[in-house]
Structures are given as C-alpha cells and as structure tokens.
Amino acid sequence: MPEVRNALVPKTPVILIHDAAIDEFMSVLLLSTMSEVDLLGIVVVNADCLAAPAMSVSWKLNTFTRQSVPIGLSNARGLNPFPWEYRGDCVKVDELAVLKSYSANPEWPAYPDGDALLTQLLSQATTPVTLLVTSPLTPISSVLQKNPALAKNVSRLIWMGGAVSVGGNLDPATVPPPTWNPYAEWNAFWDPEAVSWIFQNTQFPIVMFPLDITNQAAITPSFMNTLAQQAKTASYSALADQSYALVAAEAFYDMWDVTATCWLTRPDLFQEPPTLQLTVDTDLTGAMGTIRIAKTGRAVSVVFNFADDGTGFYNYVLNQFNRSAPA
C-alpha cells in the first residue's frame, strides 16, 4: 500500500523541467504520489521528444492524476539536438491503451510559453523553490540571464545530468565524429554552454545525478514483473508497465529521471553525496559536454550510489505506483 505521510509537514515547492522521454513521464507520475511535494508547474523542453505529442501526453497525465498543474513549452534550442531515433518515444506513450480515454491538450497547436511560466512561478514564489531538472539546463540559464534576481527564489537545483567517473551515453551510431566523444551525457551535451553558465553564475546548491548512479537503476525483469502484477488492480502501475514495456528491452535504457525524482522525498535511499568542484567542456573541437573535476570548478553535490544494492529504490517506486488514478 502507498505509505502515509504526516499531513502537517510543510510541502516542498517544486518546478519540474523535463524533455518528455518515457522515464520523465514516469517522474511526473511519481511526483503526483508524493504528498510532501507541491508541484507548482511543469516546463517541457523540446529535446528528447517531439513537441506536440510531448505536450499531449503532459496534458493527459494532468487529467489522469487529477492535477491542475500549469504546463508550458520552453523555447530552448540545443547546440547538439537529440537523434530522431530517440525522440519518437513520446508518440508511443501518447498512444498507450491506458491513456486512450483521455483527451488531447485543448490548447494545441498553441501552448503556453514555458520560459514565461518558469519566470512567473519563480517571481511569485513566497518561499524558495526546488528546481527538479531531468533535461538540459537551458530554460534555467535563459530565464536567469534575463532575470538574475530570480535566482534568490531557487532553494536548490536537482539535476539528472552528466557523467563523472563513468563513460557517457552518446551513441557513435547516431552522433558522428568529430562531435561524438565517449565522456559526455546527453543532458549536458545538448547545451553545454547552459551548464557552464549555471556553474559559473549561480550560488544555489546543486545536487547532481550523473550516469554514475543512474547506470545502477536498470529496468530489471523483476521490476517489470512486479509492475505487471500490480497493473491488474492499480492504474498507476498499468501506465508505468505499458510505458516501460516500450523500452525495457533496450540495454542502455535506465530509470535516469525517476532516480533523481526519488531523492526529493527519500534521500535516505542514497549514500551521502560528496561535494566536488566541477566544470563542463564547451570546446567545439574537444570532448564537448564532458563534466570534469577541477580546482576552479563549481561546488556540486554528486550522488554516486544507492544506500543499498538498489532494493530500497525499486521497492519505493513500486510502492508509490501501487495505486489507482483518482476517480
């Protein structure tokens, strides 16, 4: 059964910025189960997705979870666009059986400006806000460059991005040389200049979830088997099961974004993150997007490992998804 939390504990205000891959939609679903979180808004980045179906799924999830979270589409554009081979997953989610009864976004083809939404939410914040970012950092760098005073309304940035002590996830079959390198992770590679700007021009705490930890969060057969069993009676599990089934057979696909999302309410599932001084490579002729440890780098808390073998993480996610959408 879903765990019950003390309703008297103040909720953490959160803005989610994501780029609409399957695991990011699962982060949206997971956030809706967290009684400790006040989800103020969602900004979708047209990066690892296609904008129209990404916004359609976002609207359907809002309806599925019976939330009224404002959603906007960012104007961000990346230096290194995601391959088309990756970006179509949101189309498959939009066509899932469990979502068929939900209407598409009525605002199509015009969507609210995501950067304006981020600006508005930060401007109106009465307490500092957590930015949960499972995409490139471009919307934040764009908004804060235009409105630097808004940085004071950010309590911390939780970012799924980068790779520190492991290899990157660029596929040489989809990123040709000389741009391809074995060190970069896609959320850093898409717009390394944005990462560099955030590192150099902000002071709020950053907690980073690089591939070092997310490589340990595979979509395992055991996880999928339990989801399938829960799906018989729990619509959240049915949605997660149908979504992850689209990519579970892909060896490289991990629960990148759900891992970072879990830290919001269950940091005890992870080992204490060390603080490292980090920079990012923006050289067009070098290993662009590579995160490096440097004496002059930005202080970043980097999560490297689960507190156990990952059992606690999987159990928590399964427990949160073992529920049905509100009637």
Please summarize what this structure is.
This protein has a 9-stranded mixed beta sheet with strand order 3-2-1-4-5-6-9-7-8, sandwiched between helices. With 327 residues, the chain is α/β, with parallel strands linked by helices.
Protein model, in words:
This protein is 34% helix and 15% strand. It is α/β, with parallel strands linked by helices and 327 residues long. It has a single domain, classed as Ribonucleoside hydrolase-like (Inosine-uridine Nucleoside N-ribohydrolase, Chain A). The protein has a 9-stranded mixed beta sheet with strand order 3-2-1-4-5-6-9-7-8, sandwiched between helices. Helix 5 packs across helix 6 and helix 10 packs antiparallel against helix 11. It starts with 11 loop residues before the first strand and ends in a 6-residue tail after the last helix.
- Assigned CATH class: Alpha Beta
User: How far apart, in Å, are the first and last alpha carbons?
Assistant: 18 Å
3D shape: globular
pLDDT averaged over residues = 95
Q: How much helicity do the residues have?
A: 25-40%
Strand order of the largest sheet: 3-2-1-4-5-6-9-7-8
Amount of beta strand? 5-15%
Based on helices, strands and strand pairing, what is the structural class? alpha/beta
Using only C-alpha atoms, the radius of gyration works out to: 18 Å
Query: In the CATH classification, which architecture applies?
Result: Alpha-Beta Complex
Largest sheet at a glance?
Answer: 9 strands, mixed
Count of strand segments: 9
